[in-house]
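FORM 7B - TANDEM STRUCTURE REPORT

SECTION 1: FIRST PROTEIN
SEQUENCE AND TOKENS:
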Amino acid sequence: MRAVEDALSRLGGVATRAELLHVVTPRELRAAVLAGTVLRPRRGRYVAPGAEHARRVAHELSGVVSHRSAALAHGWKVKTAPELPELTVPRGRKLTQGARQAAVIRTGVLTRQERADGVTAPLATVLACARALPFDEALSVADSALRSGTVRPRDLAARAAEVAGPGRPRVLRVLRHASGKAANPFESVLRALSLDVPGLDLQPQARIEVADGVIVVPDLVDRPRRIVIEADSHEFHTKRSQLVADCWRYAELGLAGWRVLRFSWEQAMFEQDWVRWVMTRLVDPGARPPGHGAIWLAPNGRTPQVPAAAVG
């Protein structure tokens, strides 16, 4: 059952049956649902139990589900599901210490409809995440909202002119770069990291013509610099046929003059400084590493792990 929970987490906290069956068996999925470690709110759709738990806690505290918990409630994928429910309560509401330990609680103005539904409205959820969360987390939510069709690009553009108060630059940055073309949070995170690299302009899901007029659609493309960056998702690379197709695509892209980088999910999530540094060197090979050390260290204090098979 743990395999199902891990797969659901990597897929953004919500997933279809088809997505999950890339990496787990039908028996494992059924067992996880029966045990309650994964919920099936409707046929073919699966979510982590935290989404339903957030609604219960919000009801007990007379608040509403908000931020990443609201994103999950809307059926959107997130970079990381919150360990505690994320809630918003009306300003001035007094909370016990126990209540504060049961959830991540913020205060705000809630509409009558939000109080009735128990969850912040879609557009309000995107804006709240953009104001409160790290950029890669917030961009993942905004991309998911656009991808779902619940929030439209013109909704974000219209609201951008009204954004004010603390966190305004963060909110505007998310609204400016959000894209419904992003396939998943993994890809959103890589694009968020690339936006810190001067001279790099990656666009999601761009079409490229290679040998014999065949069209391929890499995850991220900087067309002027002929750079391709792929989010190498384990859940879509478990079959031999997929490996063969990937090898063909990367070979043809290379022959067509494209430079291709592939990053694993673990690297995008946990070695972000190293990923930025690799992207920086791709754009500017003469760039000096951050800091004064002669060797680049990953955020965990070690050089990024290189599988033995890659150097043997």
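SECTION 2: SECOND PROTEIN
SEQUENCE AND TOKENS:
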Amino acid sequence: MERTRSPSLGRMTQTTSVAVLGTGIMGAAMARNLARAGLAVRAWNRTRAKAEPLAADGVRVADTPAEAVADADVVLTILHDGPAVLAALEQAAPALRPGAVWAQATTAGLEGLGALTAFAADHGLVLVDAPVLGTRQPAENGQLVVLAAGPETARTPLEPVFGAVGARTLWVGDSAAEGAASRLKLVINSWALAVTHGVAEAVALARGLGVDPRGFLDAVAGGPLDMPYLGFKAGQLLGGDLTPSFATRTAEKDARLIVAAGEQAGVRLDVAAAGAERFRRAIAQGHGDQDMAASYFASFDGERESADGPPGA
């Protein structure tokens, strides 16, 4: 990055420094892409072992959130939920530089965002509500879509950051506190989770009725009922590989945030509520760390599925 004065940072920087808090499926990929883009990256994760492989990509692994954020131009949070983000930032508070830009990418929900907005105001941080669209593969390829809401002054310092992790950035508002980006993310996730459950239940019903699920896929192929996501999720089930691109445990959390947002808005979301319960059952059966296509298992008695496995296994 050329030596420039960022309007929001108010000081000269030669290389944008980024602190990444959270190195799960998404955070690790984002940290790698930031480092590959030439940014100075420090990363922290509650379980340090999950962050250590990033050192091979030029990421400095920190022992504490405070060490990670010390003098950082941009702080990027991508943790499990709002309380996890707040806990990490509270630990980092003594080292946070007033005026630093905070890109908050965790799906925290509307109530969670309120608490984070208050923290940013108390510590003089420039908060940008920045949830992302995409799962493991888009994250690894730097092809996420960033939904962003925040002040105009934050956009210049965030250009190299969002450019490294995403294919495009969609600015939907100029105030993080209004939650425009988080609201849009919840709407999009409600659709993605509903489709996932639809695929899982269709494959489960096919199995229960003695129908080859591939016959179902062949029948709808190329027609109005077909879609790439159907093929992707059904392929995971039929291939017996539930390596998470989006974990069931995280999907259950998001489903409950969606239901809560609907209640706050006076919108009854029966499908989302039932979907959250399906995820809960799948987690109880031991599938919390598998891909959310594991909603499939919620259609059966857990003991039966532990013996039979997914349809393609």
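SECTION 3: OBSERVATIONS ON SECOND PROTEIN
Residues 1-13 have pLDDT under 50 and may be disordered.
The chain is about 50% helix and 15% strand.

SECTION 4: SIGNATURE
Preparer initials: ____
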